[in-house]
Each structure stands twice: as structure tokens, then as C-alpha cells.
Design brief:
- The structure is a homodimer of 190-residue chains.
- Helix content of chain A is 56%, strand content 5%.
- Chain A is mainly alpha-helical and 190 residues long.
- The interface between A and B is large, with 79 and 79 residues.
- The first copy, chain A, binds a DNA duplex (28 and 28 nucleotides) through helix 2 and helix 3.
DNA sequence: ACCGTCATGTAATCGGTTACATGATTCT
DNA sequence: AGAATCATGTAACCGATTACATGACGGT
């Protein structure tokens, strides 16, 4: 079986000092591109709501990541004068270039599945018991995804194509999980 | 869309001081259970070869993890007298209990997909280009999985049931990825 | 006025990742 | 004998996770 390149290291940016951009960085850059100038808190809501929910980022990291990207010159930072003095970030031209470069460069990397329940299965966990719990969870999740998809599809909203596709990917995997656990749960145990 | 519990924290072990067991810990415990007393290097080979390849662990971590588990009393450590003086680890009763508890406790956690290419798609990457590269990679990976599965299935080898199931899960997901990218790659771009 | 929840952070910690290094073996 | 590869670690670093904390605001 082929080794999966899991330890993807730094993205080195031609021409820029030495910014190590992780997926988190691109999520921040990408979200700001989509919604315009934003505070870390805006990003948090956006991420929750929209659909980076297939790749969640804890809110505390949004703060530090914004600061870092600003430090690297990929975002500009501006503090509000008013009471809260929140930091508002926006893309710099360099940030936009970095995002575009990343986005347009297809990668042959494969991700591992890394599902805890499958790990338990691997190490001898009882298929029927694992399946019962997992099936319920995946069915719920599938339902949530489908509802979200329906909501985004109605009318002529201007939902970016990528959002729908990503959601559809999620839906496909949920279905696959359901198929898998259905089979695994009832196969003869010997 | 439902929030996925991604930040699964510590597994607290009733009765034991304060061992924080991660998935890596259970991989180590589980592998040692399967192959008996082993050095970190044995674990590395085992992990590579067998099938924890759907959840890889870098070899350096096997060393530190073994040391930590020994420290927590879940493994016992014994140094060879001979030249290499390698450390050989084996399960203690406590370690075995911890493993069994973990394994038999089904969890409703869901994993996120976290696929970089889908992330690029989400942020506006070109479906056709991404699909081309991903399709090739997934096809190759699928082939490798299937070959491995065939190899493990022939004859009356005593391959643990979990190994086959985990492999089958991987195969299912690879097929799903292929379905997805096939569709995404050729859908009308507007 | 008080309470609960949302908003907005800061900071310590830690597992995971990368870098580096040396001793065995095997092959030519 | 030297080169290449396998075996076996050690250690620094850093992003991600957890813990903690306070201010604003809507409702009762």
C-alpha cells in the first residue's frame, strides 16, 4: 500500500521572505477574500456558518493566524478607533497573490481517513457495536448536510460553486460511511 | 450544519494518575498487543507494512510515545544487554486494560474530511484541473488498496478481521473520491 | 440590577513535525 | 574498502489545543 504524504511541510512562497503558510492560513485568506475586510470574529462566524465546517478552525487560532499573516504582509491590519478597538484585516496584493497561487496549483496529495472508529475496528473493536453508534451519528450528519445543500440551492442565490461542490463531497462521504457501517455491522463475526 | 467535535481532548483513565492518551497511544498499545514485545522500530515496520497506513505515525513519535507510555506504567521497558541495547516494550496489565476500555467504547464522533483539494475547490479552485490530478492519485491509491486486500484474502491466513474491514473502508472512500472528482471535473463550469 | 450568553481576546502547554546524527549491514 | 541504505535515536521548534478572563448587551 502506498505511503501517503501526510507531513506536508511549508509552502514556500517565491519572492517572499519566509512565510510558512498552512491550510489555516489559506482558510483565513480565502474567507477574507470572500467577505471582504473582517475581524477574526467575523471569520469565526463565517467559518461556522458557511461550510468550512468540513475543516474547522478554533476561534483562538483565527486571532493568532491573522496576526501572523499581517506580520508577513499578506494582510493589512487596522484598529478601530471606537470603543472596542477591534482589529480589522484585509487582503494585501501579496496576500491575494499567495492565495491565488495556492488555489490554482492542483496537488496530488491524498489525505488519510483517520477515523477513530475505524481505528478501533482495526484493533479489534466489535463491529456491531461500533456500527450502531456510528450509523446514528452519520445519518444525522448526512441529514444536516442535505438540508444545508437544499437551502443553498433554492432560488437564484449567488452561492459560490465551490461551496456546493464541497458540500456534495461531504454528502458523498457520509453516504459512503453509512454504506460501510451497514455492511460491517451485520457481517458474520467470524 | 452540525459542528463536528474535532478537538477531542484527553482520555481520562479511571484509577490511573493522569495519562493523556491520544490516538497515537492506542496505536502503540494496539500494535504491541498484536505483535508482542517490540522495539519502536518493530512498531514502525509493522505500521508501515500492515495497515495503520490509513493513520500513519512518524517513526520519531513511536520512540517518544513508547517512553511516555512506559512512564505512565502502561508499557514495561527492558533494555537489551547486547550491543545495540535497544529498548523492548511490552504491555503491562494496566496497558492492556486501557486498550480494551478504549476499544470497546464506541464513539459517536465524526471526523472531518479535511482534504486539501476540496478546500481549494471551496475557495474557488478550478474543478477540472483539481479533478485531473486528484483522479489520478486516487486511482493509483485504490489499486494499491485492492491489491493489498487481495493479498490478505488469499489462502487461510490468519489476518485479523479488523484489518480487512479497515482496508475495505479505505477502498470505499477511494471509490467515493473517484466518483466525486469524476462528476466535479466535468460538470458545466457555470 | 442581575444573569446569561455572545464577543473578543491572551497565554501556557503539548503533541506532532522537522532537522540532524551516528552505528550497522549489505552490496559492489 | 567505500557507498548506499537500513536502523535507531535525540532534540528543537511550532502550530494547534486547552484554559482562562473580561467586556458588551439583551432580556427579566
Amino acid at each position: 500500500m502506498v505511503r501517503l504524504g501526510r507531513y506536508v511541510p511549508y509552502a514556500t512562497l517565491a519572492g517572499v521572505s519566509s512565510p510558512r503558510l498552512t491550510e489555516t492560513s489559506y482558510i483565513v485568506l480565502g474567507l477574507i477574500e470572500q467577505i471582504g475586510p473582517a475581524t477574526p470574529y467575523d471569520l469565526k462566524r463565517m467559518a461556522q456558518l458557511s461550510t468550512v465546517n468540513f475543516w474547522s478552525v478554533p476561534h483562538t487560532q483565527l486571532y493568532t493566524e491573522c496576526a501572523r499573516l499581517a506580520n508577513e504582509g499578506l494582510l493589512s491590519e487596522h484598529r478601530e478607533e471606537a470603543g472596542r478597538r477591534r482589529r480589522v484585516y484585509r487582503l494585501t496584493p501579496g496576500g491575494r497573490r499567495a492565495l491565488e497561487r495556492w488555489r490554482s496549483e492542483p496537488s496530488g496529495e491524498l489525505e488519510e481517513v483517520r477515523d477513530v472508529s475505524i481505528l478501533k475496528l482495526f484493533f479489534g473493536g466489535d463491529p456491531a457495536e461500533l456500527a450502531a453508534t456510528q450509523l446514528e451519528a452519520h445519518r444525522r450528519q448526512l441529514k444536516a448536510c442535505e438540508e444545508m445543500h437544499a437551502k443553498l440551492s433554492v432560488g437564484e442565490q449567488d452561492v459560490p460553486r465551490g461551496w456546493l461542490l464541497a458540500l456534495e463531497a461531504g454528502i458523498g462521504h457520509e453516504r459512503e460511511f453509512i454504506r460501510f457501517w451497514s455492511r460491517a455491522g451485520k457481517a458474520e463475526s467470524r
